[in-house]
Amino acid sequence: MDTTWRDKGIVRWTIIGLLVVAFLGAAAWYVNEQNNRGLPEGFAAGNGRLEADQIDLATRLGGRVAEIRVSEGDLVHAGDVVAVMDTSELQALLSSARADAARAESQINEVRALIQQREADLALARIEFQRTGQLAERGVQSQALADRAKATLAVAEAAVEAAQAQLSTAERAVEAARALATRYETQIADSTLTAPVFGRILYRLAQPGEVIAAGGRVVTIINLTQVYMEIFLPAADTMRTPIGAEARIRLDNIDYAIPARVSFVSPEAQFTPRTVETYEERADLMFRIRVRVPEELVRTYVDHVRTGLRGVATIRLSGNDTEPWPAEFVGKPIPEDALPKAE
């Protein structure tokens, strides 16, 4: 009797397990069908949200904020001045370095004049040495005078060498002063913060008069040159999604098909059940796909671009070159007169 009840329990739990597996399989099928409902063959779709990279504009040097020329929500172009740091101390250091450079240059001129004088003394000492040496050989003058002329020549040669060494030192001093001046000029230039890209000010993180440390953030910019949506596709669709593949984005509550292109396909699966998978599990692996909106289109509709909006991205898979976009799924085309014109 115990064996019979045990067998019935095994059967009961087996049935429950099969029902759970069937339910999970049905749920997975339903989610996949929801993402691709109504799509004809040759298309794949996934849910995502519109995103853009954020750039924190920070100071390279610590100091006081002199002015901030933008407010949150302002549109900026690459090269626009966003903020300016106080450079009064750097300007004083630059003036001092330039004065040191000018003083070192004047010393070079003085040393060059000294070298000319020492070389003239050396030429005279050589003449005197030759004359006294000849006279000493003929016995007209004493050898002592010849020795004294030889010593004078040696002193003149040493004086020329010393003057040339002074010239080298003065030239190095000029280079050092100019390098220091260049350093301060670079730091002053870095104190003017400019927008690196076309974008919109998201956060203003500092105020004029505040003292911030090196690397302190001043503003955060949304990079509108890189507006994209990331979705996940199964392995079968990913294998048919090349870089540059045509895509359409349809945002919630906006019935337009936004043209886009695939700019990134992850080289590895994002969801991996186990190190070793069955064939069915490998078929369920998902890969991250990035679909990018052309910068020209973003500039055309820049006042309407909002990151964070949710929607669906549809991709034309390889091998599907003629099938029209399903308007009921991707939305209606953007009017031709509203699209950017090719130059």
UniProtKB/TrEMBL annotation:
Q: Where are the transmembrane segments?
A: 12-31
Cross-referenced InterPro entries: MdtA-like_BSH
Q: Name one Pfam family in it.
A: BSH_RND
Superkingdom in the source lineage: Bacteria
Question: Which regions form coiled coils?
Answer: 87-121, 146-187
Question: Among its keywords, does the record have Transferase?
Answer: no
Entry keyword annotation includes Nucleotide-binding: no
Q: What is this protein called?
A: Secretion protein HlyD
Q: Which organism was this protein described from?
A: Pseudorhizobium halotolerans
